[in-house]
Amino acid sequence: MGTNRLIDQHGRVINYLRLSVIDRCNLRCIYCMPAEGIGKVCHSDILSYEELFRVARAAVAIGIEKIRVTGGEPLIRKGIIDFLGRLAAIPGLRQLVVTTNGVLLGELAADLRAAGVQRLNISLDSLDAATFARISRCGDLGRVLAGIAAAERCGFPVKLNMVVMRGVNDHELLDFAALSRERPITVRFIEYMPTIREPGWQKMIVPGDEILARLAERFTLQPLAASALAGPSRNFRIAGAEGALGVITPVSRHFCGECNRIRVTSTGKTKSCLFSDSETDLKPYFVSHDDALLTEALLTIVGAKPDSHRLSLAGSGHRSFAMAAIGG
Known about the structure:
The protein is α/β, with parallel strands linked by helices. It has helices spanning about 50-60, 80-90, 105-115, 130-135, 140-155, 175-180, 210-215, 290-305, 325, and strands spanning about 15-20, 65-70, 95-100, 120-125, 160-165, 185-190, 220-225, 235-240, 245-250, 260-265, 270, 280. A 12-stranded mixed beta sheet has the order 7-8-9-6-5-4-3-2-1-10-11-12, with helices on one face. Helix 3 runs parallel beside helix 5 (about 140-155). It is globular and about 55 Å long.
């Protein structure tokens, strides 16, 4: 465990880094990027593994205890397994997690486990092949389900992330919740976020309280306490279930007061809040081989972390962006 506690100006302990290694993805999910896709970033603009490792090492040195590797889809980047092994060996890092869409898990689950990855978050927005194809625009549900099964065989604690969209997949809420009854799976229901600012986005949102009310009509939900390194989920267990459920409410009931994270994009931009337009470019700090300036930059970013985003059901002033470009 690190010797430092990283505390922002609002008294929040910042112990969680989301580190994006690539902006590309092998799916085109409707809530993550526009139909036309996103502009291609030059290979030279993407941080090298050595630069990403320096960020991770500097972050752990000042108090980060959990790193989640994201994309785009991180598993499509060549050399990712070796890089994850290097991250896992950083002294003081308590938890290494990967967020993936599961497409490549069938081939890579065992390698991820051997590299030292401790947990997987797998995006899965439908259990129906046609609905899944509609949401992902190109995905094969069978391949993702096979990847999830491979992860379970390797002993991974699996979390499934479902972005709930009214009229698209919200009729599957009970089916997803039921997955946690017989298997030690955590299912997390995430409110749709208007990152790409499509017209009429408000109608897509199923508020977290409504999600819980619909689940409670079928199941008895027991509240669960969150761990110190946990994200923003409100957690529950169906009575007698092996797994758990979580609800993440960035729009209807923001969790900014407990936010414990910062983000670094694959191009080296650092953000202390997903919905803030403020970001710091870390690339100038890689010129020197001395990480003191890089460390100071991370401390400054944490110090400037806002108390809250301004996103609400009524509207938002943030600029639109593709989640793939920021890091999901």
